[in-house]
Design a protein that fits this description.
Layout lengths: L1 E2 L2 H4 L22 E5 L3 H13 L4 E6 L26 H19 L4 H4 L1 E10 L18 E3 L2 H4 L8 E10 L1 H14 L3 E4 L13 E4 L5 H4 L6 E11 L5 E5 L3 E4 L5 E5 L3 E2 L8 H14 L7 E23 L2 E9 L3 H27 L1
Parallel strand pairs: 2-3, 2-8, 3-7, 4-10, 8-15
Antiparallel strand pairs: 1-14, 4-6, 5-6, 9-12, 9-13, 9-14, 10-11, 11-12, 14-15
Helix pairs in contact: 2-6, 2-9, 3-9
């Protein structure tokens, strides 16, 4: 039985979470909630959920944490692509906008550095088309988005004819995930290491959030979920303060601690988790062609991740064997960027399910 949250599906209206819906942990009606997955989606859901249900009994269950998650491979820059889609255009834009302001709120705090969130400027260059350097999904919310001038075209190698510059944020999950996990546990959250093979193994929970990424393909038997393989270099480039994008998935993204990410590839339906030397050679060639200063850069390592891609991203509720489940997965290469917006909707849907349960017992 599939239960769609109607305010999400119609007109792009924002689900609202009522502060009065909080439960007292000592109350027999205090909810027991499980979050499956400890990547950027699961941990962001945990933060928003704890903010709304401060006394609930919340447990994260995952077999992968921190550096072992796909989230940790991502560069985490806020730049959505058209492959990221919700059920409607309005919902997609709402997720993007809400995520932007979530990251901005962290950026304004003294904990931004510890959380791995920083401001960054970004250039997008193309040798062939000006339109690919624009992004209508964020041009109305980022502080700056403009065409480059002739002098800026000289920043990169010769031959680049078009370009745009914008200011944005990036989130390094090597810092964000530990920061969020620390906060979750400090607020009384519990963590269990393990893999959930079936929702039927979770009968003691009143509500479950499914944030398992590619794991949802097997847990939910979801054939619409496919991997998009990515491969990147991590290089030492403390002088790099600006991000660069070029044609054919070339990108260069600075990070904290002087470690930059060079990419990349988007290999649809590939399950290869090994580093490919041919992909590595192509990535480095494209990045050096874009920014010659990277020639002979010191390589720290190479990483591979399988992005969980689904159209649309699945944020909806379902009852499985009597268990209330809220799904939040399928973000593809935009999980870090759009985790907050989707998590807010997922939590609103989940709390609505809890309130429905309470009303049905009266």
């Amino acid at each position: 039985m599939l239960l769609l949250y109607r305010s999400c599906a119609q007109g792009g209206q924002t689900p609202r979470v009522s502060r009065s819906s909080r439960f007292n942990k000592m109350d027999k009606n205090a909810p027991r909630i499980a979050i499956l997955g400890a990547g950027v989606i699961g941990l962001t859901v945990s933060k928003i959920l704890q903010d709304e249900l401060r006394n609930a009994d919340i447990t994260i269950i995952s077999d992968e944490f921190r550096e072992n998650t796909v989230s940790d491979v991502a560069a985490g820059i806020f730049r959505p692509g058209l492959s990221f889609r919700g059920p409607t255009q309005a919902i997609t834009k709402r997720w993007i906008d809400k995520s932007w302001y979530f990251w901005q709120d962290i950026l304004k705090t003294r904990e931004a550095e510890e959380a791995g969130v920083l401001s960054v400027g970004c250039y997008i260059f193309s040798k062939e088309n000006y339109h690919v350097t624009r992004n209508g999904l964020i041009e109305d919310i980022v502080p700056i988005y403009r065409a480059v001038d002739k002098d800026e075209l000289k920043i990169v190698s010769e031959g680049w004819r078009y370009g745009s510059y914008f200011t944005t944020v990036k989130t390094g999950c090597d810092r964000y995930l530990p920061w969020m996990q620390k906060s979750f546990e400090a607020k009384g959250g519990k963590i269990i290491t393990g893999k959930v093979e079936s929702f039927s193994s979770l009968p003691k929970y009143d509500l479950v959030f499914n944030c398992t990424g590619m794991g949802a393909k097997y847990l939910c038997k979801d054939n619409d979920l496919v991997p998009i393989r990515g491969q990147v270099f991590k290089v030492k480039a403390p002088w790099l303060k600006t991000a660069f994008y070029g044609d054919y998935d070339a990108y260069i993204i600075p990070g904290q601690d002087g470690i930059a990410t060079l990419g990349g590839v988007r290999q649809y339906d590939s399950y290869n988790t090994k580093v490919c030397k041919y992909d590595a050679a192509a990535i480095m060639e494209r990045c050096v062609e874009l920014l010659p200063a990277l020639k002979n850069v010191e390589i720290v390592g190479q990483r591979v991740g399988l992005r969980p891609h689904r159209v649309p991203v699945r944020v909806e509720s379902e009852v499985v064997s009597g268990l209330k489940v809220v799904h939040c997965y399928g973000h593809g290469g935009y999980g870090v960027m759009c985790a907050p917006g989707t998590a807010m909707d997922a939590v609103a849907i989940g709390l609505d399910q809890l309130r429905s349960s309470v009303r049905s017992k009266i």
